[in-house]
UniProtKB/TrEMBL annotation:
One of its GO terms (molecular function) is alpha-glucosidase activity. This is Glycoside hydrolase family 31 protein. InterPro entries: Gal_mutarotase_sf_dom, GH, Glyco_hydro_31_AS, Glyco_hydro_31_C, Glyco_hydro_31_CS, Glyco_hydro_31_TIM, Glyco_hydro_b. Residues 308-729 form the Glycoside hydrolase family 31 TIM barrel domain. The keyword Hydrolase applies. It comes from Collybiopsis confluens. The keyword Glycoprotein applies. GO terms for biological process: carbohydrate metabolic process. Keywords: Glycoprotein, Glycosidase, Hydrolase, Signal. The lineage of its organism: Eukaryota, Fungi, Dikarya, Basidiomycota, Agaricomycotina. Residues 737-827 form the Glycosyl hydrolase family 31 C-terminal domain. It comes from the Eukaryota. Belongs to the glycosyl hydrolase 31 family.
Length: 955
């Protein structure tokens, strides 16, 4: 939830100008001597060696380590690990208890891995090549001979600290640097979390570049700044136009440290560069060989943990609002949605639910426990669900008459983060002065689970949990409650939107009173006043960072990362806040959200045994997908953010956090009828589909406008019909890490015109979505991959797209219509009768949509299980394969499917059949019909048992 509403920041901030920052960086890393390699020893799985400083220490931003240890491990045939650490092991490393990784290999892949580690001993450098293509450019190359000889101009004008003037390996207690060359024409995706002005593909334009800062922060979706998550992983795609060969690989730095990752291409350069500048930790790199983009994402998921299993109900439509003032108000939304016949699966509550903004409570006046319980049970009786918010901090209390068990029990169990002097660290959030759970403390899991259980027992019988503000967020800087009047209920001094004196009064982005009237919103026929502007962007160039050892400066070290808030302790915990075992927050700040997500997931498993936990969280880190999904934060009700929605979803597929979506219609500011119409349609094809907006803004539930209601009914109906497809895609994600949503080029990696496309996307391999992302239009331009060799059919009409020679087509897109196309060769199992809830939908019969390619082939699979058990107790996989006027339906597994396949639609049947048979029995002509215009064979009135080993349909 957005915090920037007249915040009171306690303590003065140390302002650092561009000049000061540049002066800080001018310690001249070009003078750093690098390291020399010696004592190389081969192991069964790779090698180990020692590195010694190759000259006088430069101590650029800390103290140089004289001796390092390098370990190279060929972990699989597609994954290589290169770990460079100080020989004393004094730098912070991520423990297995936080992010578990696969066990060390017992088989040698040294000679079979497609990745090969190469090195030069002095000055030490390494490069990674492919065994399968040894003459190709290295995938990662730190050799000085591969890097420029002259300094590189600043990425940010006037900020000399973003210049690159040294490329040797630097390994200090407060600064680590490593640089690799990249081909000029390469394509990089990932690194985050970020809303990148350059789009899904990262900026490597000649003479330009970008900075990915790794420091999680609570901020309302700025452009080109660090956001809620930290993900130092990228997917790189290289394409050789001469040979028409394409290969992808991945690079992951396993580190929780703050840092900057610089991507840039110098003027007149022969290569691009990536430079890592970390303010702590070690250099622990993993390389993934791919060679397809999907394979890279799968290989990354196999390392950090595959995504959790998602129940079908989580794919329904979710509704929330910061500003539902009571349980009756919340109930009225459910009733209004039902009256408008807009399917509603999950109802949410924001912090309005709480008593005095306190976690694990419900307000005794506006949300009395028994009324909340009755409301939630009424939802459950109608196959609907309930999710409440859970914030990161709990109030600190000293008044003995103020009974609040989560704090008193937490203090008893010693589960809160401390100051360096071992007193409680006291920050400031919605309930006032607050303390923060320490996930490293022994009793925190027990305490957290008990608090959630008591909350549920008290009436808030949640189906899932929403974790907000878990960067962690604090309104003041430092332990501001130390020495303060802790019973002062006037803090925090934050003006909440919608309260007197702080109304949300901005007009919708495309409001034009001359067209729409003084209280109306622009319509599709109005005159657009949009500029497609977004929130203020640009990079701040202030911040702090350090290592964790004694003798280093935790609060103002020399190298300043590009944190958008400046000091690293702004809006979050101070960098010297202390966890169990003496761990300082500077080293683990980026993991706080992940650790809360893991604790919540484990709690839900205990409280709801055997069920699949549903958690949506804001701050994320590698392996979050194993525990939770993500929403894209406090976005804006602007058209540009409708577009940013897509790149955010694509980005989190790379991070193996596939269950992701944006606040539909926008969170901040006021939406309008047209924007909300288009956004509801787009989000119906996102993994996570929730409408949510801020307190005080105009209401944006989809029933508020007739045309939004109509568009929503249509889009949700399609979504629910495709539920078997979604469940199959997410089963593949949970079993293999396969991304459910894909950039177009993932499926067509040699079509360079697709590499920058991020205004369309694929759901799986077979469903192409082309949304309208601009106001006041009734058509949209789309590109259809395959260069004429792939057939794309309209999902609604089944007509074949007639694209131009360059693969593009202008598509009709009146308000209320989103273009969806099916790929030739696809076979999609669907629900024949989408209903009001996913439970009712899943109880009905199946249909099958087959889109034959020109050679009459099609293929698809469907994964089916009970949708509840975790992990699935039983499952069934049904395969659909078509060749030469025959469709085979094969089935294997132990799960029993009760519903029958009653409708089949086969597209691309070149002529009207003389007969149609199912399971060896000829059908009466009344059971099928043929449409010549779209070459459609529609079969109905059948009852195919999907448990049968094989059923043949022929025509």
């Amino acid at each position: 939830m957005l915090l920037a509403f007249g915040l009171c920041v306690v303590g003065a901030l140390a302002e650092k100008t561009l000049v000061q920052r540049a002066a800080s960086f001018s310690k001249n890393v070009s003078d750093c001597p690098g390291y020399s390699l010696h004592a190389v020893e081969a192991t069964g799985t790779g090698l180990t060696a020692q590195l010694s400083l190759a000259g006088p220490a430069c101590n650029a931003f800390g103290t140089d380590y004289q001796n390092l240890t390098i370990q190279v491990t060929y972990e699989t045939e597609t994954r290589l690990r290169v770990r460079i650490a100080d020989s004393e092991d004094s730098q912070y490393t991520i423990p297995e208890s936080v992010v578990s990784r696969p066990a060390a290999p017992t088989t040698s892949f040294t000679n079979s891995s497609d990745l090969v580690f190469n090195f030069e001993p002095s000055p030490f450098a390494f490069w990674i090549t492919r065994r399968s293509s040894p003459n190709s450019a290295p995938l990662f190359d730190t050799r000085l001979s591969a890097l420029p000889e002259t300094p590189i101009p600043p990425v940010i004008t006037g900020d000399e600290s973003t210049a690159l003037d040294g490329f040797s390996l630097v390994f200090e207690d407060q600064y680590l640097q490593l640089t690799s060359s990249l081909p000029l024409d390469t394509n990089i995706y990932g690194l985050g979390e970020v809303i990148a002005s350059s789009g899904f593909r990262r900026n490597l334009a000649v003479g330009g570049g970008s900075i990915q800062t790794l420091w999680t922060r609570d901020v309302g979706d700025p452009v080109d700044g660090n956001l809620y998550g930290s993900h130092p992983v990228y997917l790189e795609h290289r394409f050789n136009e001469t040979t028409n060969e394409a290969q992808s690989h991945g690079v992951f730095l396993f580190s929780s440290s703050g840092g900057d990752i610089m991507l840039l291409t110098p003027p007149n350069a022969k290569q691009s560069l990536v430079q890592y500048r970390m303010i702590g930790g070690i250099l622990d790199f993993y390389f993934f060989s791919g060679p397809s983009p999907v394979a890279v994402i799968e290989q990354y998921g196999a390392l950090v943990g595959l995504p959790s299993w998602i129940p079908p109900w989580a794919f329904g439509f979710h509704l929330c609002r910061w500003g539902y003032t009571s349980v009756n108000d919340t109930m009225e939304q459910v009733q209004a949605m039902r009256a408008a016949n807009i399917p509603l699966e999950v109802m949410w509550n924001d912090i309005d639910l709480y008593h005095a903004f306190r976690d694990f409570t419900s307000d005794p006046v506006s949300y009395p426990g028994e009324e909340v319980r009755a409301f939630i049970r009424d939802l459950a009786a109608n196959n609907q669900h309930y999710i409440p918010i859970l914030d990161a901090a709990v109030p600190h209390l000293t008044n003995a008459s103020d009974v609040y068990a989560p704090y008193s029990k937490g203090r008893e169990l010693d589960v809160f983060i401390k100051n360096p002097d071992n007193t409680e660290y006291i920050g400031q959030v919605w309930p006032g002065y607050t303390v923060f759970p320490d996930w490293f403390a022994n009793a925190t899991q027990e305490w957290w689970t008990e608090a959630m259980k008591n909350w549920s027992d008290g009436g808030v019988e949640f189906s899932g949990i929403w974790l907000d503000m878990n960067e962690a967020s604090s309104f003041c800087q430092g332990s501001c409650g130390t020495g303060a009047n802790l019973n002062d209920t006037s803090v925090p001094s934050v003006q909440i939107p919608g309260t007197p004196g702080n109304p949300v009064t901005d007009y919708p982005e495309c409001y034009d009173s001359s067209v729409s009237g003084p209280s109306g919103n622009i319509t599709i026929n109005g005159t657009s006043t949009c500029t497609n502007s977004s929130s203020p962007s640009g990079l701040s160039v202030r911040g702090l960072g350090a290592g964790a050892q004694s003798g280093v400066d935790l609060n103002s070290p020399p190298y300043v990362i590009h944190n958008g808030f400046g000091d690293l302790s702004v809006h979050t915990l101070a960098t010297n806040a202390t966890h169990a075992g003496g761990i300082v927050d500077l080293d683990v700040h980026n993991m706080w959200g992940l650790m809360e997500e893991k604790a919540t997931h484990l709690a839900l498993q205990e409280l709801q045994p055997g069920k699949r936990p549903v958690i949506i969280a804001r701050s994320t880190f590698p392996s979050t997908g194993k525990w939770a999904g993500h929403w894209l934060g406090d976005n804006y009700s602007k058209w540009e953010y409708l577009y940013y929605n897509i790149q955010g979803i694509l980005q989190f597929q790379i991070f193996n956090i596939p269950f992701v979506g944006a606040d539909t219609c926008g969170f901040q500011g006021n939406t309008d009828e047209e924007l909300c119409n288009r956004w509801m349609q787009l989000s119906a094809f996102a993994p996570f589909f929730r409408n949510h907006n801020q307190r005080g803004a105009i209401s944006q539930e989809p029933y508020r406008w007739d045309n939004v209601a109509k568009a929503s009914r249509t889009a949700i109906s399609i979504r629910y019909s495709l539920l078997p497809y979604w469940m199959t895609l997410f089963a593949n994600a949970s079993m293999r890490g396969t991304p459910p949503v894909r950039a177009l080029w993932y499926e067509f990696p040699t079509e360079s015109e697709l590499f920058a496309v991020d205004r369309q996307f694929l759901v799986g391999a077979d469903v192409l979505v082309t949304p309208v992302l601009r106001p006041n239009v009734s058509s949209v331009e789309g590109i259809f991959p395959g260069r004429g060799q792939v057939t794309w059919r309209d999902f609604y009409t089944h007509e074949v797209v007639k694209a131009s020679s360059n693969g593009t087509a202008t598509l009709s897109a009146p308000l209320g219509h989103i273009n969806v196309h099916i790929r030739g060769g696809a076979a999609l199992l669907m629900h024949a009768q989408p209903a009001y809830t996913t439970t009712e939908t899943r109880g009905g019969p199946f249909s099958l949509l087959v889109s034959l390619e020109s050679h009459s082939n099609a293929f698809g699979t469907a994964y089916l299980d009970d949708g509840l058990s975790n992990p699935p107790a039983e499952s069934r996989t049904v395969t659909f394969s078509s060749t030469a006027n025959e469709l085979k339906i094969s089935s294997r597994g132990t799960f029993t499917v009760d519903q029958k396949l009653e409708e089949l639609t086969i597209l691309g049947v070149s002529k009207k059949p003389s007969k149609v048979s199912v399971g060896g029995k000829n059908l009466q002509k009344s059971s099928w019909e043929y449409g010549t215009d779209v070459q459609e064979l529609a079969i109905s009135g059948v009852s195919v048992d999907l448990n049968s080993a094989e059923t043949v349909v022929s025509w």
